[in-house]
Each structure stands twice: as C-alpha cells, then as structure tokens.
C-alpha cells in the first residue's frame, strides 16, 4: 500500500492557493514553506444570490427551522501529487483510495493534537469530503465515509515510518486513526477558489460558510463541518462552475 499523503499533519505544506494553510502534523513543527494563495474575489452578486436560493430551499424543506450547530461531517486533506517525506512518497489521491481493497483504508499519520481529537470524535457512518491539498488546484473531489472509529495508529511505533513517534508508548498511544471508505466522486470538482468566494460572501451576509474551518483554521488536515456547511458545499456540485 502506498504511503498516503493523509499522513500530513507532520511536515505538511500549504495548499498552493490557500494562505498560510500548511497542515502542521505536530504542534512543534512550523518551519514548512508557506505559499501564497492567489487572491480570489467572489463574483459580483453570484455567491450571495446562491446562498439566498439555497437558504430558501432548505427552509422550505425543514419548515423554516434552523439547523443545530453541531459537527457531524468532516473534511479530510490528502495530497494527490508526489512528495517525499523522509524518503517516502506521501502521495495519496482519490484514485489511490479507490484502488485499495474494498476501496477502504486507514487514515494514519495525523500528528496534530486537535486533528487527532477530531479523528477520535468521528462516528461510524459519518461522511467526509475528500480534499486534494498542496497541489496546483486544491479542492473537493469525492465523498468518503467512516467505517471504523478511532483506534491506535500503528505508524507511531514503526521506526521506518515517516511519522514514527519515539515518545508514544503502546500501553498509552498518543495517536489515533480511523478507517474510511470511498462513497462516490462529487458530480464535479469543487475548487478551493469557489468555496472561498462563497466564504467571503457569507462573512458579509451571514451565510453557512462564514466560519468554515477551511479558512479559519487552515493548517488542520482534519476539519469538522456543520450540517449546513456540508449541505451548502454539496449543493455546489449541482451548479455550473
């Protein structure tokens, strides 16, 4: 099995179009090169009207009741392009996941405490966006689901693994992982630039992406999503780019 780039919270780098968005795998490692995101302005009127139309539809479906603010979905960053980490290629694209037996694999190598805690909060059957990171065009490519809840990450004990942690003990492991399974590709690629345009518009008009962690805590490779955030981003696959 290839070394997945989801092992990203250690020595991770920024999305090339995401400001200060390197994914820190340990809280101590902060020296990775950061790359500037090309500035993206929301299209005039486009995002706001899109949010209003989406909100109108959701209110119609739910009788006007607002969704509770809880994290029940996730965004998982992984690198689709080759990059060596301690001599190991950490590339892991959605095609690599689809090539795994039963299209399932463990999501290992997370070495950031907050990201680890998010892993430990994941529940069986919850869905997540598979996000291509640190590449020419970062963005969401697919949906996966959690098929095994958090358990000890075996790579922390493997001295040959890029994410070996000599301070972790088998009787009290510091790091966890989950198993994920491919569900489907999104109907189209949803680029970071498009999501950011909606985020900026929602900051002004109170839309669901106003506090999206993809822009408030860019360094994390594991990010929670509210139901509204997940639903809105998923609705974008129905729109023409």
From TrEMBL:
List locations, semicolon-separated: Nucleus
CDD domains annotated for this entry?
EVE
Q: What is its main location?
A: nucleus
Q: What does this protein do?
A: Specifically binds 5-hydroxymethylcytosine (5hmC), suggesting that it acts as a specific reader of 5hmC.
Q: Which UniProt keywords apply?
A: Nucleus, Phosphoprotein
Q: Name one GO cellular component term.
A: nucleus
Q: Does the keyword rRNA-binding apply?
A: no
Q: Where is this region: Disordered?
A: 1-65
In this chain the EVE domain maps to 73-235
Please list which residues make up the signal peptide.
Answer: none
| Pfam annotation, one family | EVE
Name recorded for this polypeptide: Thymocyte nuclear protein 1
Q: Where is the composition biased (Basic and acidic residues)?
A: 10-28, 56-65
Q: Which Gene3D superfamilies match?
A: ph1033 like domains
